[in-house]
Amino acid sequence: MAKGLIVQKFGGSSVANVERIQNVAKRVVEYKKKGYDLVVVVSALGDTTDELISLSEQINKHPSEREMDMLLSTGEQASSALLAMAIHKLGFEAISFTGAQVGIITDTDFTKAKIIDISADKIKDALKKKKIVIVAGFQGITRNQDITTLGRGGSDLTAVALAKALSARTCEIYTDVDGVYTTDPRIEPKAKKLPHITYDEMLEMASLGAQVMQARSIEVAKKFNVIIHVRSSFNKHEGTIISKEAKRMEEFVISGVTLNKNEVKITICDVPDKPGVAAKIFSKISEGGVNVDMIVQNVSHTRQTDISFTAPKADLSKVMRITKKAAANIGAGKVLKDEDIARVSIVGVGMKTHPGVAAKMFSALSKHDINIEMISTSEISISCIIKKKSGEEAVRALHAQFNLA
Amino acid sequence: MAKGLIVQKFGGSSVANVERIQNVAKRVVEYKKKGYDLVVVVSALGDTTDELISLSEQINKHPSEREMDMLLSTGEQASSALLAMAIHKLGFEAISFTGAQVGIITDTDFTKAKIIDISADKIKDALKKKKIVIVAGFQGITRNQDITTLGRGGSDLTAVALAKALSARTCEIYTDVDGVYTTDPRIEPKAKKLPHITYDEMLEMASLGAQVMQARSIEVAKKFNVIIHVRSSFNKHEGTIISKEAKRMEEFVISGVTLNKNEVKITICDVPDKPGVAAKIFSKISEGGVNVDMIVQNVSHTRQTDISFTAPKADLSKVMRITKKAAANIGAGKVLKDEDIARVSIVGVGMKTHPGVAAKMFSALSKHDINIEMISTSEISISCIIKKKSGEEAVRALHAQFNLA
User: Fold this and answer.
1) Which residue is closest to B89 within chain A, CA to CA?
2) B89 three-state secondary structure
3) pTM of the model
4) Does A161 map to a domain?
């Protein structure tokens, strides 16, 4: 009868109101009836987290991060209790736990803590008693008993980490989309759902703007080989399996096209072309806590060169301040910003063994008169910075070029 | 400089919105500036608890009590974090804790748990570091790490228990009234605030319908001799001190008049007048979890008698069901209910040494043509059951009779 353990994670939109909580309960119970053991991770109800953040900002624009975690962790605690009640209503046994109660031990980096250890003894006890276990996502506790939260996508991380700790057969991430698509269906209606994708491809997709799962959770899943199934909480279609090796036809080179409009381009002009100069700039920016992404330095024909890089739009004022200071220190020239950019990328494990993928990409963009401002490549992706207004057109052009429809 | 420790408790209406939270922060900081150490206990914001209860009832009419506590405890956790942020904003150090974090250990009687033990180590550590300590009221944790709540008035109980555990010099209960009055000022505008009242008097006042503090907290305060100061969070007037001995002029016999319209009267007719019969009835009712209050049995001239008692209106259908069954078992007659009653009471430590207080009460009611249906007396109170419509008139009559204005 026992078919093994599944970890299921339901996001905020899946538990946004009473009716949806009841639907989640029904779905969980269906799996229980089939003979699975279940650990269910829930996010806070709908907009609860945003509302709590807004409340805190009215009180203190720069709230203590420890107190912020104390505040925000209540959202997931409440939704897990409500889901337990909804499962009871269907006549099944269920018990909810906070992150602290199940021993999700984290470091003390409040608002973005890292999981150090999971004891999960309470979960194992409850599973032995045939209970459905519900765990408040997004949270943990330090060894000193302070409540922490895990940052953006934290509930996914809770689910993946529990799947690892409990050796679950799979970790289902329920969301408001059917799975991972070849590109954003709102941009290209011909986008197709991918039945399988590798961790590495998904990591590129996630970091490049696909909103399905945060990179951190996928990294952890990859590290511990946790099989993830991303699927919709609103229907019963199979979603996308994320695993080490994707089952896929050999010729299917590219798995997806992504678009990211949340970056800005910064250019430092007239940088002295000496060893160590770039290191100086980027170590300053990194100390400021900004994640710089693409970095392009033109080959220098004189003693000076331009360095461009992209950074998250949210960090613009901070990164400009730091960069200007660093530029002055090394005797460089002006620092320019460009917010009118978009990054379009193609992702696919297959591309590294298929020559000509980059050329095919550039020619597709060129056919549409889309100018490429920066290029960066990785083992499994190629990204181009283009004008923001051409973003959607570029996605459709590449989707067609690589026969993804 | 160190003037000792004060525990301050702010109820839901005192932290109902951002502005009020900020006001509470200001008041706390004023005391800190004066040199006091401070432990602040907060309730959930305004209607949060009611909203959570309503949510849970939509999901499950009979929610698990363990999950209910998991749900409701989030309200106080959130408000304590927000108050900490508000105090930080004023430039003072503060740290918030859940009941679990400060080691408020309770039994496993979910939704109305009793405090067994308080370690308070974390509070002492934080006080040593000169921090203002904020504790989420109303909650604790079992030895098995399940979250519990303490039932109605639970935040008061948290405050009183912490005042005891930390040997605080006083426990201030901030509320939306100025203190304890001789009677409800909405009924008798001449009602006067009492500067002092004894635990016993306050217990009578609380159980008889004065809404200032729940009886449980006062019982604990009395047991451990914790001095309570009930006062308004909206002004700086001195409130009412509740302690063992009230400083008061000898002739001030009666401290207050109370009115309770939330009871019903049940009468069992033709009860066989045999030993043990009353015990049988009331043990059944008590097993049903109903708190019966006044019990009156007429002297029997035949072999049968009538027994009347009062019970909370909320328990009416339950108590009728149990009583009818018990009446049938012992061969008694009909069971009658009367919802058209009110209880008016006078309370005062002085009355036991002053003869004629009861007679004075009855004559005041009689002068107003108010018929008395039942009478009960205790060491420090006399209560009469009268028709509901005469409740307010009776209060004013007694207030005047005993010169309370």
Assistant:
1) A60
2) helix
3) 0.83
4) yes
